[in-house]
Every structure is written in C-alpha cells, then in structure tokens.
Amino acid sequence: MELPQLNIYTQNDPKQFLASEDLKGQYDGTIVFFSDKKALTTVIPAAQVYADMDEHFGESIQLIVVSDNQGPSKRVVVAPVGSINNDFDDVRRFKDAAFAAGKRALKAGVTAPIVVFADTPKDSSNLGWTFDGEDDFKHYLEVTILGLFESAYEPIDVREHAERSKKPLQVFKQLGFSTRDQVQVESLIQKVSAIEMGRRVSKDIGSPDPERMSPIQVVKYLQDTFGKDPRIKMTVIDDIETIKKEYPLAHAVTRASLAVSRHHPRFVLFEYQSPDQSKVKENLYFVGKGVTYDTGGADIKCSGHMRGMSRDKCGAAAVAGYFKTISMLQPDRVNVRAGLALVRNSVGSDSYVSDEVIYSRNGTRVLVGNTDAEGRMVMTDLLCQFKEEAVASSSSAPNFLFTVATLTGHALRAYNGYGIALDNGFARRHKMSQRIYDAGHVLADPFEISTFRREDVEVVQPGRSSEDVVQANDQPSTMTNRGHQYPAGFMLIASGLDKHGLKDKKPIGFTHLDVAGSAEEMSAVGWSIPRVTGSPVAALTGAFLL
After folding, report:
1. Within a 13 Å sphere around the CA of 102, how many CA atoms are in the beta-carbon half?
2. Which of 137, 228, 339, 448 is 20 to 30 Å from 113 at the Cα level?
3. Is the CB of residue 2 less than 8 Å from the CB of residue 49?
4. Does residue 231 have an active-site annotation?
5. pTM, rounded to two decimals
6. Distance, CA of 169 to CA of 29 (rounded, Å)
7. What does DSSP assign to residue 406?
C-alpha cells in the first residue's frame, strides 16, 4: 500500500517548465488542470488545434497528442476544473477533476505523469462567495494531489486478488507537480501523505465484504498496520465475558453472532500521547461504530435494504485511519484515545429484541425499541468508558469526546452526501463542529453543522418506571422527526454524559459525527455498491492536527 514517489517543483512558467530537458525520462505523460481554456492553449499550444476543430474541446477529460517540445511525453491529459467563480463553487472542483484525470491517465498506460496548472484560483479576480471568510481554494494543490492518489487506490481485497491472479494493478509509480505557489515542500508532502495513508487504512477496512473484514479480520489488519508502531498503543479485547461486562449494550447487539466463531466481536483501544505534554491543548477521544454487517437484527432489513450493510463499519474504519495519520504527523498539541466497537448485528435464535431492557455500562436501563438502531448501542458503552477516563484525568487540558458512525438514513435524507456534526454545549463553546466544518471545506471533505436541541433529549425520556431511556421508536430514522439528531440524545443519557454539561463541575465536550452520507459515494456503477471515500479523515486532520 505504498504511495507513489511524490515530487513538487516551484516554477513560475508552466510552459517553459514542461519544455525542460530535465523532465524527459522521468515522466511518461502530462496532466494539465485549467479553468480557462485560453490558459490551457498558452501552456500547451498544440491544444489550439483541437480547440479550433471542436468548440466543446476542453469541457471534459480528454487525452491529446502533442509534439516533443511541449512536455516530457506526447501524451497529455486535458483536465478542465470547471467553474471556480460561482457563489457555491469550492475546492472539490480540483478533487473531482484530479480523480477523473488520474483514471484517464492510468487507462492510457501513464504511470508517472507530471502535473501542471495552466491557471490557479489565485489567477482569478472574481472568486465566488466564501464560507469562512478565508480563501476557499487555499489548499487546491493538496486536494489535487489527494485526488490523484485516490484515483490509483485499490482496496485490500482487490490487491490480494491481483496477487493471486498475478495480474498487475494500474497504479502510479511517480507523480510530479509543478506549482507557482511558494510552498514548504517537505511539510506539504508529509501532510498529504499522512492524510492519504489514513484514508487508505480507512478504505481498506471499510470497503471489503463482511467476511474479508469481519471483526477478527479487522483486528488482524490493524495488528499488521500498528503492531510495530512505537507511537501508537493498541489493545485488543476479545474475551466475550469481558465484552459482556464492560460493554453490555454492544454485547446485546452481537449475541446472535456468537453462534459463529468467525463472527465474534472485538473491541480495539488506541492511545497516542503527545511527545511534549507541556504543549497539549486538548484531550481527544473517538468512538468508532464498526458494525461489520448489519442485518437489522430481529427488526430485519427487508425489501433490499440490507444491501450495502457491509459498509456499516466505516465509522470505525475512519477512526482507525485517523490514527494512521496521527502516527505519521506526530502532533504535540493533542493526546488522542480511541475505541472501535467491531461487532456483527446478526439475526438468530439469540437475537436481542425490541422491548428488552438492558443495563448500560453507566447503569442506565435502556428500553430497546428497534434492533436496527444498533449503532448507538455499540458505541454508548465505549463513550461511557471515555467519559470515566476524562473525569479521572489529571490533565488541565479540556476533554472532547466524539462518536463517528454511519448511523442513520435520516442523515442522507437531511444532507445527502455530506457528513454531519453536532455538539453539546461544551463542545459548541469550543467550536468543535465549526472547526470540522471549516477544515473539511478547504480540504474537500465537507461537513454540515446540525444542532443538538432539547427535543433530542426529551424524545428518548422514559414513559414508565421500568426504564431510564428509550433507544428508538418502531420507525426507521428516515420516517422519524430529527432522525439523525436524537440518537445523540440517547447516547448522552445512556453513557452518563448528560451529567457533564456546561453547568457541571467537570464539563466534557461531546460531538457526534454521522458520516452515513460522506463515508461512501452517493452513486455506484450499475448495480454495484458505491466506493468508500475515507471521510472524515481529512476533515479531522485539518481540524485537530494541522
């Protein structure tokens, strides 16, 4: 899973740069990004011939052939970025163009392209409305590099198939980038490499089928990834009785899977400590939902709705990927803890069922309303554990807890393909969702900010003396008002975090991230299932590590 060699050159004149004799023999193709067709023909004069013959030339990805003095190779991929001047344009223009251009280059057999920008956002005097008062396109170079990395990525099951069948994969061996911007090359390469390796770990776990990435197989992969990493402490909990005692809500979800040994649950704990504790500004705790397959349990998903539920592990996958990024960046301003709840929500004679009342780790009596609302169940006890650790911590830095999950269909209904962030009072005071929103916006991993309100706590209140909190109603989230917000209200109460709000002696921040919309693409090819994106690794990196 190595990244291609990455070279970055700072040059003022892309046309003159492409004519350099130094590039020949190093690169076997050229990719030119542009928003203005005139800028393209200035850098690649041969493109004018195509433009003269076809008025629609330059409106889509295209491979053209040029003379030897216009690049290190005769093959040039013309990559229009599209508009960057409209009110609602953002840096995803570069991400999308880079992904498409990379795919086209690979199909042409280009494995070592040199990339140039005929024009850049800084050349435009009329950029559109900004989201945060800063330059929306300030990281266009990093986003373009990440888009090309993504175009050549294949998940672990595909790599294993290629090895078995002895058929080589189409990958880039080397990528060169020319920019007129003054950049700190080593720092930029470190940053994009760390984000991309984190996304690749996330996608390696999130993409494969439920057998290739069962809880046990995910742990094997993580042990290969982090086993020799001195910067990350990793602990695996595999004893069923321990899981039953420490994480009783998750144990209920996984009960039906215990009849099949290869589907047994695993809990994974990660820890990263800043190398300089005097510089620590925040203690961060992440809980990842890792439901490796979600049948819905006794409230079974029917009418084709079970399809794609191997992707219900993408929250845990993203948290694991984020720790790969942390390991590579070695930030000194944060300590980070994480827990992955890796379970399978199977259906069988020992399935947990609606109407059961189950004690959480916090001692809260949970009335189960729908076994297909299992994600909040598997995360709540880990959230409680991290609450306990935050309360016991002697650190003077504030504590912030996060849940990361492909949790609700309502998230898709409300915000389509965007991740969602919502805060409790202490997290909102520290602008945690806003930081994720701002970072995601400039790194092409966009989020929407939702709001945690009193209704989200009131709706899960007990209706009788036999329970303390209600897990869900009998309707899917898409048919429930505030369907992506109220699960946070449930987790707040069932974990005991409701006792650590702004007014309390030791307030603790809580931010819930529902990435059901952003963890995979919104569309697929034919009747297949969509590709996994690795979101929110980039947004979290920008918000808390850079």
Report:
1. 24
2. 137
3. no
4. no
5. 0.97
6. 18
7. -
Take residue 209 and report the two structure tokens written for it.
């089928």
Please name the residue that has the structure tokens 């609302």. 373
* pLDDT (tens digit per residue) in 330-385: 999 999 999 999 999 999 999 999 999 999 999 999 999 999 999 999 999 999 99
Q: Tell me how crowded residue 1 is: count the other CB atoms within 10 A of its CB.
A: 13
Domains detected in the chain: 5-183 (3.40.220.10), 204-544 (3.40.630.10)
What phi and psi values does residue 306 have, to the nearest 5 degrees?
-80, -15
At 392, which helix (H) or strand (E)?
helix 374-392
Question: How does DSSP assign 99-166, residue by residue?
Answer: HHHHHHHHHTT-SSEEEEESS-GGG-S-----SSSS-TTTTHHHHHHHHHHHHT---HHHHHHHHHHT
- Out of 200, 255, 376, 387, pick the active-site residue: 376
Distance of CA 327 to the CA centre of its chain: 16
Known catalytic membership, residue 93: no
Bridge partners of 179, per DSSP, are 10
DSSP 69: G
**Could you tell me the two tokens for 28?**
């076997």
Closest CA to 497 of 316, 335, 362: 362
In the set 92, 138, 231, 301, the catalytic residue is 301
| Helix, strand, coil tally for the chain in percent (to 5) | 40, 20, 40
Reference 508, options 436, 425, 440; nearest CA is 425
